Amino acid sequence: MRPPVIVNPSASRRSPYARRRTGAGRYGPRHVYTARGQGVLLVGGTEPECDPLEWLDDPDDGSPLPTVSQFRTQVTRAARRLPGLRVPNKPRGVAGVYDVTDDWTPVYDRTDLDGFYVAIGTSGNQFKNAPLVGRLMTSLIHGVGGGHDHDRSALTHTCEHTGQTIDLGAFSRRRRPASSTGTVLG
Fold it and tell me: How confident is the model at residue 26 (pLDDT cuts 50, 70, 90)?
């Protein structure tokens, strides 16, 4: 899937909107605006129902460039919210592909091939959790490598700072799909 993320190089550097803003407004669904240096504004969405998702069978089919339709949709919404925003005449920006599972919950698990493990389906929002994911995967790999049958009885991980326990079965490739919004927001 390729979410719309647009770079608008025409944003005024003196704009009062040159900071992160989110929220539903009178012009529609929530969007994100983030200043990126002088004269650059990133404009992105949060997969609102009115914007169809684009699913790809092969991630290599994705383009790093926004489509004309994505660009027009995002900059039109931004221009309605940010009076005085200069809108470029042609699409400029970045679009990306990220992997998701059916329920948007990542899979941190072994595979059916012994010795191979995956941390996939993170939808791009798990980057900040990478240190914890590394610890979860370490617990999983050591447990399964030590003979534990994780498919029969899920392993757990105890967090070092909080003492909280995480059931690694929640991230199993064989789990039942979790209830979610079907978006990156969970």
Answer: very low
SS3 145: helix
Which pair of structure tokens corresponds to residue 44?
A: 């992105």
Please tell me the distance from the alpha carbon of residue 93 to that of residue 87, in angstroms, as a whole number: 12
Beta bridge partners of 124: none
What is d(CA 108, CA 137) in angstroms, rounded to the nearest whole number? Answer: 7
Note the pLDDT tens digit of each residue in 44-102: 777 777 877 777 888 888 888 888 888 888 888 888 888 888 777 888 787 877 788 87
Which amino acid would we find at residue 44? Answer: G
Q: What is the pTM of this model?
A: 0.64
**CA–CA dist 128, 89 (Å, integer):** 35
C-beta of residue 155 within 8 angstroms of C-beta of residue 140: yes
Instruction: Characterize the bridge pairing of strands 117-120 and 165-167.
Output: unpaired
Edge to edge, what strands does the sheet with 41-45 contain? Answer: 31-35, 41-45, 4-8, 93-95
Contact of 140 with 169, CB cutoff 8 Å: no
